[in-house]
Amino acid sequence: MSSASGATAETSSTADVLDVRVAKAMAADDTAGVATREPSSSTSSDSGLEQSAQIIGGSETTIGSAPWMAQLWYYDASLDLGFFCGGTVVSPTKILTAAHCVDKDYYDWAANGAIVTGTDQLPTAVLDDEGNYVSTDYHGGTVTAVSRQWNHSSWNEDTIDNDVAVLTLASPVKATPIKMTTSDDTTSYTAGTKAKVYGWGRTSSTSQDISQTLKTATLPIVSDTTCGNTWGSYFVKGHMVCAGPPAGGSDATTTATCNGDSGGPLVVNNKVIGVVSWGVTDCVYEGAYPVFAKVSKYAGVTYPRVDDTAITRDGKADVFLRNKETGTGYVRASNGSSLGDRQSLNSYGSWKGYNLVQQTDLNRDGHQDFVLRRSSDGDVFWRRYVPSSKTWTTTQIFDNWKTRTRILTPGDVTGDALPDLLSVDSAGALWIYPGKGNGTFGTRVKVGTGWNTYNAVLGHGDFTGDGKADLIARTKTGSNVYLYKGTGKSGTGAFASRVKVRSDWAGFNALITPGDVSGDGRADLLARTTGGTLYLYKGTGKATSEIFSTRVSVGTSYAQYDLLG
Q: Taking the model in full, what pTM does it have?
Protein backbone atom coordinates (compact mmCIF):
# COMPACT_ATOMS: atom_id res chain seq x y z
CA MET A 1 0.00 0.00 0.00
CA SER A 2 1.12 3.58 -0.48
CA SER A 3 2.43 5.66 2.40
CA ALA A 4 1.15 9.08 3.43
CA SER A 5 2.18 11.89 1.12
CA GLY A 6 1.48 14.74 3.51
CA ALA A 7 -0.86 16.59 1.13
CA THR A 8 -3.13 19.12 2.79
CA ALA A 9 -6.86 18.81 2.44
CA GLU A 10 -7.30 22.54 1.98
CA THR A 11 -5.50 22.43 -1.37
CA SER A 12 -6.44 18.96 -2.59
CA SER A 13 -10.11 18.62 -1.59
CA THR A 14 -13.35 20.29 -2.59
CA ALA A 15 -16.87 19.38 -1.50
CA ASP A 16 -17.36 17.46 -4.73
CA VAL A 17 -14.18 15.47 -4.20
CA LEU A 18 -15.25 14.56 -0.66
CA ASP A 19 -18.69 13.51 -1.90
CA VAL A 20 -17.10 11.14 -4.38
CA ARG A 21 -14.77 9.70 -1.74
CA VAL A 22 -17.66 8.94 0.58
CA ALA A 23 -19.72 7.37 -2.20
CA LYS A 24 -16.83 5.21 -3.40
CA ALA A 25 -15.94 4.18 0.16
CA MET A 26 -19.55 3.15 0.75
CA ALA A 27 -19.50 1.00 -2.36
CA ALA A 28 -16.31 -0.78 -1.29
CA ASP A 29 -16.22 -3.67 1.13
CA ASP A 30 -12.67 -3.48 2.47
CA THR A 31 -11.76 -3.17 6.13
CA ALA A 32 -9.02 -1.25 7.89
CA GLY A 33 -5.85 -3.31 8.05
CA VAL A 34 -5.74 -5.06 11.37
CA ALA A 35 -4.12 -8.47 11.67
CA THR A 36 -6.15 -11.61 12.39
CA ARG A 37 -4.21 -14.07 14.52
CA GLU A 38 -4.38 -17.61 15.69
CA PRO A 39 -5.85 -18.20 19.15
CA SER A 40 -3.66 -17.49 22.18
CA SER A 41 -1.86 -20.30 23.96
CA SER A 42 -4.44 -20.21 26.71
CA THR A 43 -7.17 -21.29 24.31
CA SER A 44 -7.48 -24.36 22.16
CA SER A 45 -6.70 -24.06 18.46
CA ASP A 46 -10.30 -24.72 17.50
CA SER A 47 -11.84 -22.33 20.02
CA GLY A 48 -12.56 -19.69 17.39
CA LEU A 49 -11.05 -16.89 19.46
CA GLU A 50 -9.26 -14.94 16.73
CA GLN A 51 -8.68 -11.19 16.82
CA SER A 52 -10.55 -9.10 14.29
CA ALA A 53 -11.06 -5.40 13.91
CA GLN A 54 -14.48 -4.76 14.79
CA ILE A 55 -22.92 -3.37 17.52
CA ILE A 56 -24.53 -6.52 17.77
CA GLY A 57 -27.44 -6.10 20.15
CA GLY A 58 -28.07 -2.69 21.65
CA SER A 59 -30.53 -0.17 20.30
CA GLU A 60 -30.81 2.74 17.92
CA THR A 61 -29.96 6.21 19.21
CA THR A 62 -29.89 9.76 17.88
CA ILE A 63 -27.10 12.21 17.18
CA GLY A 64 -28.63 14.42 19.88
CA SER A 65 -27.64 11.76 22.41
CA ALA A 66 -24.14 11.41 20.99
CA PRO A 67 -23.38 14.66 19.12
CA TRP A 68 -19.66 13.92 19.11
CA MET A 69 -19.93 10.82 16.91
CA ALA A 70 -18.08 10.89 13.61
CA GLN A 71 -18.05 8.69 10.51
CA LEU A 72 -14.64 8.09 8.92
CA TRP A 73 -14.78 7.26 5.21
CA TYR A 74 -11.65 6.30 3.25
CA TYR A 75 -11.26 5.60 -0.45
CA ASP A 76 -7.98 5.29 -2.36
CA ALA A 77 -8.79 5.25 -6.08
CA SER A 78 -5.31 4.06 -7.07
CA LEU A 79 -5.79 0.88 -5.03
CA ASP A 80 -9.59 0.73 -5.27
CA LEU A 81 -9.46 0.47 -1.47
CA GLY A 82 -12.33 1.74 0.63
CA PHE A 83 -13.41 1.26 4.24
CA PHE A 84 -15.32 2.80 7.14
CA CYS A 85 -14.44 3.47 10.79
CA GLY A 86 -16.00 5.32 13.69
CA GLY A 87 -14.48 8.21 15.58
CA THR A 88 -15.11 10.79 18.27
CA VAL A 89 -15.01 14.58 18.06
CA VAL A 90 -12.75 15.61 20.96
CA SER A 91 -12.28 19.21 19.81
CA PRO A 92 -13.74 21.14 16.86
CA THR A 93 -10.87 20.06 14.60
CA LYS A 94 -9.82 16.75 16.16
CA ILE A 95 -11.15 13.19 15.81
CA LEU A 96 -10.05 10.44 18.19
CA THR A 97 -10.05 7.02 16.56
CA ALA A 98 -8.08 3.78 16.28
CA ALA A 99 -4.57 3.52 14.87
CA HIS A 100 -5.58 0.58 12.69
CA CYS A 101 -7.96 2.97 10.91
CA VAL A 102 -5.32 5.65 10.41
CA ASP A 103 -1.96 3.81 10.09
CA LYS A 104 0.31 6.28 8.30
CA ASP A 105 2.29 3.46 6.68
CA TYR A 106 -0.79 2.45 4.70
CA TYR A 107 -3.32 5.27 4.60
CA ASP A 108 -3.10 8.90 3.50
CA TRP A 109 -6.19 10.49 5.04
CA ALA A 110 -5.51 13.99 3.69
CA ALA A 111 -5.53 12.65 0.15
CA ASN A 112 -8.20 9.96 0.49
CA GLY A 113 -10.32 10.56 3.61
CA ALA A 114 -13.56 12.35 4.51
CA ILE A 115 -15.22 12.84 7.91
CA VAL A 116 -19.00 13.10 8.38
CA THR A 117 -20.41 14.63 11.57
CA GLY A 118 -23.75 15.91 12.83
CA THR A 119 -25.95 12.98 11.76
CA ASP A 120 -27.01 9.58 13.11
CA GLN A 121 -27.59 8.25 9.59
CA LEU A 122 -25.03 6.91 7.16
CA PRO A 123 -25.01 8.85 3.88
CA THR A 124 -27.13 7.76 0.96
CA ALA A 125 -24.85 7.64 -2.04
CA VAL A 126 -25.76 6.90 -5.65
CA LEU A 127 -23.42 5.52 -8.32
CA ASP A 128 -24.51 4.64 -11.85
CA ASP A 129 -24.21 1.17 -13.38
CA GLU A 130 -20.62 1.90 -14.37
CA GLY A 131 -19.63 3.03 -10.89
CA ASN A 132 -19.61 6.74 -11.68
CA TYR A 133 -20.64 9.18 -8.98
CA VAL A 134 -24.17 10.59 -9.11
CA SER A 135 -25.08 12.06 -5.71
CA THR A 136 -24.68 11.89 -1.91
CA ASP A 137 -27.22 12.75 0.79
CA TYR A 138 -25.72 13.30 4.27
CA HIS A 139 -29.12 13.46 6.05
CA GLY A 140 -28.33 16.76 7.75
CA GLY A 141 -24.69 15.94 8.40
CA THR A 142 -21.58 17.74 7.26
CA VAL A 143 -18.61 16.34 5.37
CA THR A 144 -15.14 17.68 6.20
CA ALA A 145 -11.67 17.11 4.80
CA VAL A 146 -8.67 15.90 6.80
CA SER A 147 -5.48 17.97 6.93
CA ARG A 148 -3.17 15.59 8.78
CA GLN A 149 -3.04 12.37 10.76
CA TRP A 150 -1.24 10.96 13.78
CA ASN A 151 -1.13 7.45 15.16
CA HIS A 152 0.73 6.25 18.23
CA SER A 153 4.42 5.91 17.47
CA SER A 154 4.43 2.42 18.99
CA TRP A 155 1.34 1.19 17.19
CA ASN A 156 1.85 -2.50 16.44
CA GLU A 157 -0.47 -4.04 13.86
CA ASP A 158 0.64 -7.57 14.77
CA THR A 159 -0.29 -7.28 18.44
CA ILE A 160 -2.96 -4.58 17.87
CA ASP A 161 -1.31 -2.65 20.70
CA ASN A 162 -1.25 1.13 21.22
CA ASP A 163 -4.30 1.36 18.97
CA VAL A 164 -5.02 5.11 19.19
CA ALA A 165 -4.89 7.87 16.60
CA VAL A 166 -5.99 11.45 15.99
CA LEU A 167 -7.13 13.03 12.73
CA THR A 168 -6.93 16.80 12.32
CA LEU A 169 -9.73 18.34 10.27
CA ALA A 170 -9.14 21.03 7.67
CA SER A 171 -11.85 23.17 9.28
CA PRO A 172 -13.75 23.07 12.59
CA VAL A 173 -17.05 21.24 12.86
CA LYS A 174 -20.12 22.31 14.83
CA ALA A 175 -20.45 18.95 16.57
CA THR A 176 -20.24 19.20 20.35
CA PRO A 177 -16.96 17.61 21.49
CA ILE A 178 -16.64 15.10 24.31
CA LYS A 179 -13.71 14.97 26.70
CA MET A 180 -11.19 12.17 26.86
CA THR A 181 -10.57 10.76 30.30
CA THR A 182 -7.42 11.67 32.20
CA SER A 183 -4.29 9.71 32.93
CA ASP A 184 -5.15 9.34 36.63
CA ASP A 185 -8.65 7.97 36.06
CA THR A 186 -9.04 4.57 37.69
CA THR A 187 -12.70 4.79 38.78
CA SER A 188 -14.04 4.50 35.24
CA TYR A 189 -12.28 1.15 34.81
CA THR A 190 -13.67 -0.50 37.94
CA ALA A 191 -15.16 -3.89 37.04
CA GLY A 192 -18.92 -3.65 36.67
CA THR A 193 -18.96 0.05 35.79
CA LYS A 194 -21.59 0.63 33.11
CA ALA A 195 -20.06 2.00 29.91
CA LYS A 196 -21.78 2.86 26.64
CA VAL A 197 -20.46 2.13 23.18
CA TYR A 198 -21.63 3.77 19.96
CA GLY A 199 -21.25 2.91 16.31
CA TRP A 200 -22.61 2.06 12.89
CA GLY A 201 -20.98 -1.37 12.75
CA ARG A 202 -22.38 -4.78 11.85
CA THR A 203 -25.60 -5.78 13.59
CA SER A 204 -25.38 -9.49 12.83
CA SER A 205 -22.70 -12.16 12.81
CA THR A 206 -24.16 -13.56 9.60
CA SER A 207 -24.15 -10.38 7.53
CA GLN A 208 -21.35 -7.97 6.61
CA ASP A 209 -23.80 -5.05 6.36
CA ILE A 210 -23.18 -2.18 8.74
CA SER A 211 -26.03 -0.26 10.40
CA GLN A 212 -27.64 2.63 8.54
CA THR A 213 -28.54 4.22 11.91
CA LEU A 214 -26.31 4.94 14.89
CA LYS A 215 -26.56 2.29 17.57
CA THR A 216 -25.56 2.17 21.22
CA ALA A 217 -25.22 -0.51 23.87
CA THR A 218 -24.40 -0.63 27.54
CA LEU A 219 -21.37 -2.78 28.33
CA PRO A 220 -20.10 -3.36 31.87
CA ILE A 221 -16.35 -2.99 32.37
CA VAL A 222 -14.59 -6.33 32.74
CA SER A 223 -11.69 -6.86 35.13
CA ASP A 224 -8.19 -7.25 33.71
CA THR A 225 -8.01 -10.70 35.25
CA THR A 226 -11.15 -11.90 33.47
CA CYS A 227 -10.09 -10.33 30.22
CA GLY A 228 -6.61 -11.82 30.50
CA ASN A 229 -8.02 -15.26 31.21
CA THR A 230 -10.16 -14.96 28.08
CA TRP A 231 -7.58 -13.60 25.69
CA GLY A 232 -4.28 -14.75 27.14
CA SER A 233 -1.24 -12.97 25.76
CA TYR A 234 -3.37 -11.09 23.23
CA PHE A 235 -4.55 -8.87 26.11
CA VAL A 236 -1.97 -6.23 27.15
CA LYS A 237 -2.78 -5.16 30.67
CA GLY A 238 -2.69 -1.39 31.13
CA HIS A 239 -2.97 -0.76 27.40
CA MET A 240 -6.33 -2.43 26.83
CA VAL A 241 -9.65 -2.82 28.58
CA CYS A 242 -12.51 -5.28 27.99
CA ALA A 243 -16.18 -4.43 28.32
CA GLY A 244 -19.48 -6.23 27.91
CA PRO A 245 -21.23 -9.36 28.95
CA PRO A 246 -19.52 -12.41 27.48
CA ALA A 247 -20.81 -13.16 24.00
CA GLY A 248 -23.50 -15.83 23.99
CA GLY A 249 -22.69 -17.57 20.72
CA SER A 250 -25.49 -16.03 18.66
CA ASP A 251 -26.88 -12.64 17.72
CA ALA A 252 -29.81 -13.11 20.10
CA THR A 253 -27.53 -13.77 23.09
CA THR A 254 -24.77 -11.22 22.38
CA THR A 255 -24.28 -7.51 22.92
CA ALA A 256 -20.92 -6.45 21.54
CA THR A 257 -19.06 -4.24 19.11
CA CYS A 258 -18.46 -5.64 15.64
CA ASN A 259 -16.80 -4.77 12.34
CA GLY A 260 -17.45 -1.14 11.43
CA ASP A 261 -17.45 0.03 15.04
CA SER A 262 -13.62 0.32 15.01
CA GLY A 263 -12.35 3.63 16.31
CA GLY A 264 -15.58 4.55 18.07
CA PRO A 265 -15.84 5.50 21.73
CA LEU A 266 -16.46 3.64 24.97
CA VAL A 267 -18.02 6.25 27.26
CA VAL A 268 -18.36 6.54 31.06
CA ASN A 269 -19.78 9.67 32.72
CA ASN A 270 -19.55 11.63 29.47
CA LYS A 271 -15.86 10.91 28.99
CA VAL A 272 -14.21 8.68 26.41
CA ILE A 273 -12.40 5.93 28.30
CA GLY A 274 -11.84 3.49 25.45
CA VAL A 275 -11.47 3.26 21.68
CA VAL A 276 -13.00 0.27 19.88
CA SER A 277 -10.01 -1.85 18.91
CA TRP A 278 -10.63 -5.58 18.35
CA GLY A 279 -12.72 -8.57 19.23
CA VAL A 280 -13.63 -12.08 18.15
CA THR A 281 -14.21 -12.91 14.48
CA ASP A 282 -17.93 -12.41 13.68
CA CYS A 283 -18.29 -10.96 17.16
CA VAL A 284 -20.51 -13.57 18.88
CA TYR A 285 -18.20 -16.48 19.82
CA GLU A 286 -19.35 -17.72 23.22
CA GLY A 287 -17.42 -16.29 26.16
CA ALA A 288 -15.56 -13.60 24.21
CA TYR A 289 -15.33 -9.91 25.14
CA PRO A 290 -14.60 -6.95 22.84
CA VAL A 291 -11.37 -5.10 23.58
CA PHE A 292 -10.73 -1.36 23.63
CA ALA A 293 -7.62 0.80 23.74
CA LYS A 294 -7.47 2.21 27.28
CA VAL A 295 -7.61 6.00 26.90
CA SER A 296 -6.20 6.77 30.36
CA LYS A 297 -2.98 5.08 29.27
CA TYR A 298 -2.74 7.27 26.19
CA ALA A 299 -3.88 10.65 27.57
CA GLY A 300 -0.27 11.80 27.86
CA VAL A 301 0.48 11.29 24.18
CA THR A 302 -2.98 12.03 22.81
CA TYR A 303 -3.85 15.32 24.53
CA PRO A 304 -0.83 17.12 22.99
CA ARG A 305 -2.00 15.97 19.57
CA VAL A 306 -5.41 17.48 20.28
CA ASP A 307 -3.90 20.80 21.40
CA ASP A 308 -1.13 21.15 18.80
CA THR A 309 -2.14 24.29 16.96
CA ALA A 310 0.84 26.06 15.38
CA ILE A 311 1.20 29.13 13.19
CA THR A 312 2.02 26.86 10.24
CA ARG A 313 -0.62 24.26 11.28
CA ASP A 314 1.76 21.30 10.92
CA GLY A 315 1.69 20.05 14.53
CA LYS A 316 5.07 21.55 15.52
CA ALA A 317 4.98 24.74 17.57
CA ASP A 318 6.60 27.75 15.91
CA VAL A 319 8.37 30.77 17.43
CA PHE A 320 7.01 34.32 17.30
CA LEU A 321 9.54 37.14 17.19
CA ARG A 322 9.27 40.95 17.04
CA ASN A 323 12.15 43.09 15.84
CA LYS A 324 12.79 45.81 18.43
CA GLU A 325 13.83 48.40 15.84
CA THR A 326 11.09 48.02 13.23
CA GLY A 327 8.27 46.45 15.26
CA THR A 328 7.82 43.81 12.57
CA GLY A 329 6.41 40.51 13.72
CA TYR A 330 7.94 37.30 12.38
CA VAL A 331 7.51 33.57 12.65
CA ARG A 332 10.29 31.02 12.47
CA ALA A 333 8.64 27.70 11.71
CA SER A 334 9.85 24.64 13.57
CA ASN A 335 11.63 21.91 11.65
CA GLY A 336 11.70 19.68 14.73
CA SER A 337 15.25 20.37 15.89
CA SER A 338 15.81 23.72 14.19
CA LEU A 339 13.91 26.80 13.08
CA GLY A 340 13.28 27.82 9.48
CA ASP A 341 13.83 31.19 7.86
CA ARG A 342 11.79 33.97 9.35
CA GLN A 343 8.57 35.04 7.64
CA SER A 344 6.78 38.33 8.26
CA LEU A 345 3.46 38.26 10.11
CA ASN A 346 2.55 41.89 9.42
CA SER A 347 -0.37 40.74 7.26
CA TYR A 348 -1.93 39.57 10.54
CA GLY A 349 -1.98 43.16 11.85
CA SER A 350 0.46 45.53 13.48
CA TRP A 351 2.70 44.26 16.25
CA LYS A 352 3.84 47.71 17.38
CA GLY A 353 2.69 49.14 20.69
CA TYR A 354 2.43 45.82 22.53
CA ASN A 355 4.63 44.52 25.35
CA LEU A 356 3.42 40.91 25.38
CA VAL A 357 2.52 38.30 22.77
CA GLN A 358 1.38 34.78 23.64
CA GLN A 359 0.35 31.97 21.26
CA THR A 360 -2.86 30.04 21.89
CA ASP A 361 -6.08 28.84 20.27
CA LEU A 362 -8.86 30.25 22.42
CA ASN A 363 -11.73 29.17 20.17
CA ARG A 364 -10.34 25.71 19.31
CA ASP A 365 -10.75 26.22 15.57
CA GLY A 366 -7.35 24.80 14.65
CA HIS A 367 -5.92 28.20 13.71
CA GLN A 368 -3.21 29.83 15.83
CA ASP A 369 -4.42 32.81 17.90
CA PHE A 370 -2.45 35.44 19.78
CA VAL A 371 -3.01 37.22 23.09
CA LEU A 372 -1.43 40.69 23.14
CA ARG A 373 -1.14 43.42 25.77
CA ARG A 374 -1.02 47.07 24.72
CA SER A 375 1.82 49.03 26.33
CA SER A 376 -0.02 52.33 26.71
CA ASP A 377 -2.93 51.20 28.87
CA GLY A 378 -2.49 47.48 29.57
CA ASP A 379 -5.57 46.44 27.62
CA VAL A 380 -5.41 42.82 26.46
CA PHE A 381 -6.47 41.72 23.00
CA TRP A 382 -7.25 38.50 21.15
CA ARG A 383 -5.98 38.34 17.58
CA ARG A 384 -7.49 35.51 15.57
CA TYR A 385 -8.03 34.25 12.05
CA VAL A 386 -11.55 34.31 10.58
CA PRO A 387 -11.77 31.47 8.04
CA SER A 388 -15.00 32.71 6.45
CA SER A 389 -13.38 35.97 5.34
CA LYS A 390 -9.78 34.75 5.34
CA THR A 391 -8.79 37.78 7.40
CA TRP A 392 -7.35 38.50 10.83
CA THR A 393 -9.26 40.45 13.48
CA THR A 394 -8.24 41.87 16.86
CA THR A 395 -10.72 42.33 19.72
CA GLN A 396 -10.29 43.40 23.33
CA ILE A 397 -10.74 40.75 26.03
CA PHE A 398 -9.43 42.47 29.22
CA ASP A 399 -9.17 46.08 30.37
CA ASN A 400 -6.26 47.80 32.13
CA TRP A 401 -3.93 44.91 32.88
CA LYS A 402 -0.92 47.22 32.93
CA THR A 403 0.15 46.10 36.41
CA ARG A 404 -0.11 42.37 35.70
CA THR A 405 3.44 41.04 35.93
CA ARG A 406 2.75 37.85 34.01
CA ILE A 407 0.13 36.79 31.45
CA LEU A 408 0.31 33.27 30.06
CA THR A 409 -1.72 30.87 27.93
CA PRO A 410 -0.68 27.33 28.95
CA GLY A 411 -3.68 25.56 27.45
CA ASP A 412 -6.29 23.60 29.39
CA VAL A 413 -5.39 23.99 33.07
CA THR A 414 -8.77 23.16 34.62
CA GLY A 415 -9.43 19.85 32.86
CA ASP A 416 -12.51 20.87 30.88
CA ALA A 417 -10.78 20.57 27.49
CA LEU A 418 -10.97 24.34 26.90
CA PRO A 419 -7.93 26.68 26.85
CA ASP A 420 -7.49 28.94 29.85
CA LEU A 421 -5.58 32.15 30.55
CA LEU A 422 -3.53 32.84 33.69
CA SER A 423 -2.08 36.03 35.14
CA VAL A 424 -0.02 37.19 38.10
CA ASP A 425 -1.16 40.49 39.63
CA SER A 426 1.01 43.18 41.22
CA ALA A 427 0.59 41.57 44.66
CA GLY A 428 1.97 38.23 43.40
CA ALA A 429 -1.34 36.34 43.26
CA LEU A 430 -1.80 33.81 40.43
CA TRP A 431 -5.27 33.74 38.86
CA ILE A 432 -6.93 31.34 36.42
CA TYR A 433 -9.38 32.74 33.92
CA PRO A 434 -11.33 29.65 32.77
CA GLY A 435 -11.77 29.71 29.01
CA LYS A 436 -15.21 29.13 27.46
CA GLY A 437 -13.84 28.08 24.10
CA ASN A 438 -15.02 31.22 22.30
CA GLY A 439 -12.56 33.90 23.40
CA THR A 440 -14.42 34.72 26.59
CA PHE A 441 -13.73 33.60 30.15
CA GLY A 442 -15.53 32.61 33.31
CA THR A 443 -15.08 34.16 36.73
CA ARG A 444 -11.44 34.17 37.73
CA VAL A 445 -10.21 31.71 40.34
CA LYS A 446 -7.27 32.34 42.67
CA VAL A 447 -4.53 29.72 42.71
CA GLY A 448 -2.28 31.23 45.39
CA THR A 449 0.14 33.98 46.31
CA GLY A 450 3.90 34.42 46.31
CA TRP A 451 4.32 34.29 42.55
CA ASN A 452 6.16 37.64 42.57
CA THR A 453 9.27 35.75 43.68
CA TYR A 454 9.66 34.72 40.03
CA ASN A 455 10.92 36.80 37.12
CA ALA A 456 9.42 34.33 34.66
CA VAL A 457 6.23 32.29 34.82
CA LEU A 458 5.36 30.53 31.61
CA GLY A 459 4.11 27.35 29.99
CA HIS A 460 2.30 25.98 26.99
CA GLY A 461 1.28 22.36 27.10
CA ASP A 462 2.30 19.26 28.98
CA PHE A 463 5.89 18.87 30.23
CA THR A 464 5.36 15.68 32.23
CA GLY A 465 3.57 13.36 29.83
CA ASP A 466 0.29 13.04 31.74
CA GLY A 467 -1.83 15.12 29.39
CA LYS A 468 -2.23 18.07 31.75
CA ALA A 469 -0.89 21.59 31.26
CA ASP A 470 2.07 22.53 33.45
CA LEU A 471 3.94 25.73 34.37
CA ILE A 472 7.63 26.65 34.46
CA ALA A 473 8.88 29.41 36.79
CA ARG A 474 12.30 31.01 37.40
CA THR A 475 13.18 32.68 40.70
CA LYS A 476 14.47 36.26 40.87
CA THR A 477 17.02 35.19 43.48
CA GLY A 478 19.33 32.40 42.34
CA SER A 479 17.63 32.09 38.94
CA ASN A 480 16.49 28.56 39.77
CA VAL A 481 13.89 26.95 37.52
CA TYR A 482 10.91 25.06 38.93
CA LEU A 483 8.23 22.85 37.44
CA TYR A 484 4.64 23.22 38.62
CA LYS A 485 2.90 20.04 37.55
CA GLY A 486 -0.71 20.58 36.52
CA THR A 487 -3.42 18.53 38.21
CA GLY A 488 -6.31 19.30 35.84
CA LYS A 489 -8.15 21.11 38.63
CA SER A 490 -8.95 24.73 39.39
CA GLY A 491 -8.19 26.96 42.37
CA THR A 492 -5.58 26.19 44.99
CA GLY A 493 -5.20 22.61 43.80
CA ALA A 494 -4.44 23.49 40.18
CA PHE A 495 -0.74 22.66 40.52
CA ALA A 496 1.27 20.23 42.59
CA SER A 497 4.16 21.31 44.79
CA ARG A 498 7.00 22.73 42.77
CA VAL A 499 9.95 20.62 41.68
CA LYS A 500 13.37 22.19 41.10
CA VAL A 501 14.61 21.27 37.61
CA ARG A 502 17.48 23.73 36.97
CA SER A 503 19.88 25.94 38.95
CA ASP A 504 21.39 29.33 38.09
CA TRP A 505 19.80 30.19 34.78
CA ALA A 506 20.80 33.86 35.12
CA GLY A 507 22.58 33.68 31.77
CA PHE A 508 19.25 33.67 29.93
CA ASN A 509 17.37 36.93 29.45
CA ALA A 510 14.33 35.34 27.82
CA LEU A 511 12.52 32.05 28.31
CA ILE A 512 9.72 31.05 25.95
CA THR A 513 7.36 28.09 25.79
CA PRO A 514 5.53 28.04 22.45
CA GLY A 515 4.47 24.41 22.94
CA ASP A 516 5.66 21.20 21.30
CA VAL A 517 8.42 22.52 19.04
CA SER A 518 9.86 19.10 18.23
CA GLY A 519 6.51 17.51 17.34
CA ASP A 520 6.98 14.52 19.66
CA GLY A 521 3.98 15.28 21.91
CA ARG A 522 5.97 16.88 24.73
CA ALA A 523 6.16 20.57 25.57
CA ASP A 524 9.55 22.18 24.97
CA LEU A 525 11.34 25.31 26.19
CA LEU A 526 13.55 27.83 24.41
CA ALA A 527 16.03 30.07 26.22
CA ARG A 528 17.98 33.08 24.89
CA THR A 529 21.37 34.03 26.25
CA THR A 530 22.37 37.64 26.89
CA GLY A 531 24.51 37.34 23.77
CA GLY A 532 21.52 36.46 21.58
CA THR A 533 21.95 32.69 21.15
CA LEU A 534 18.68 30.78 21.30
CA TYR A 535 18.69 27.22 22.63
CA LEU A 536 16.02 24.57 22.29
CA TYR A 537 15.50 22.38 25.36
CA LYS A 538 13.36 19.45 24.20
CA GLY A 539 11.02 18.05 26.81
CA THR A 540 11.54 14.48 28.01
CA GLY A 541 8.25 13.98 29.85
CA LYS A 542 10.08 13.54 33.18
CA ALA A 543 9.05 15.63 36.18
CA THR A 544 12.64 15.71 37.50
CA SER A 545 15.93 17.45 36.80
CA GLU A 546 15.94 15.38 33.61
CA ILE A 547 12.90 17.30 32.31
CA PHE A 548 14.88 18.54 29.29
CA SER A 549 17.24 16.85 26.85
CA THR A 550 20.66 18.30 26.06
CA ARG A 551 20.15 21.74 24.61
CA VAL A 552 20.50 22.45 20.90
CA SER A 553 21.38 25.85 19.47
CA VAL A 554 18.84 27.13 16.95
CA GLY A 555 20.66 30.37 16.08
CA THR A 556 22.78 33.28 17.29
CA SER A 557 20.98 36.36 15.98
CA TYR A 558 18.13 36.66 18.45
CA ALA A 559 19.32 39.76 20.36
CA GLN A 560 17.50 41.88 17.75
CA TYR A 561 14.09 40.82 19.08
CA ASP A 562 12.32 42.39 22.05
CA LEU A 563 9.30 40.07 22.07
CA LEU A 564 9.50 36.30 21.80
CA GLY A 565 6.55 33.99 22.22
A: 0.91
